[in-house]
Amino acid sequence: MTFYESVAKQRRWNSFAGQMTTVVACSLLLAVSAKISVPFYPVPLTMQTFVVIGLGLALGPARGGAAVLLYLAEGVAGLPVLAGTPEKGVGLAYMMGPTGGYLLGYLPAVLLAGMLAVRGWDRHPVTAMTAALLAGAVIYVPGLVWLGLVIGFDKPVLEFGLYPFILGDIVKAMLAALLFPMAWKALKGKAGH
Fold first, then answer.
1. Is beta strand 45-46 parallel, antiparallel or unpaired with respect to 37-38?
2. Residue 193 scores a pLDDT above 80
3. Does the reported pTM lie above 0.85?
4. Cα gap 114→68, rounded to integer Å
5. Residue pLDDT, tens place only, 85-106
6. Nearest in space to 64 (alpha carbons), one of 75, 78, 53
């Protein structure tokens, strides 16, 4: 059972309308997270990947996947929901650029995080961090391949598209390792009262 399902059961949010509202709200949360940039070394961090992984951990694969798909559809439709939009373009043209593969990687990442959450990986700091690191790593597979296709594999693709982000991803995984077990503990405390 995911965190969302546990909360929904207690609050009776299991209706179709409640679930759709959650998916839409989470796609908007993802859009907001794309616009938040935290100063960090060697590159600024957006909270987008943290939210993608967090949606999987909180909502599970189906609802998390639906929220990410809706977010990507909003991006394709030209809504300025993606990082760098509208300044760097919008819609499919923007998504075909160097970061397009990372955006595609959000879907397998949220699905993996969701599947691990269903198995209870989000309830303990070590497994929550492991789930976050694994899901984050999944984003790099299509991201780096796509980046190489766009800029050319003769360029240092790993130096541009992986190395600058590793430290930030570890910090985000540590944050997930703190937040999700704490949320479960708080939920169990409320259920006990």
1. antiparallel
2. no
3. yes
4. 12
5. 888 888 998 899 999 999 999 9
6. 53
Q: How far apart are the first and last CA of the chain?
A: 20
Residues 123-159: tens digit of each pLDDT: 999 999 999 999 999 999 999 999 999 999 999 999 9
Scored b (16 or more CB within 10 A) or e, 75-108 reads: beeeebbbbebeeebbbeebbebebbbbbbbbbb
pLDDT reading at 31 higher than 80: yes
Ordered by where they begin, the domains of the chain are 3-192 (1.10.1760.20)
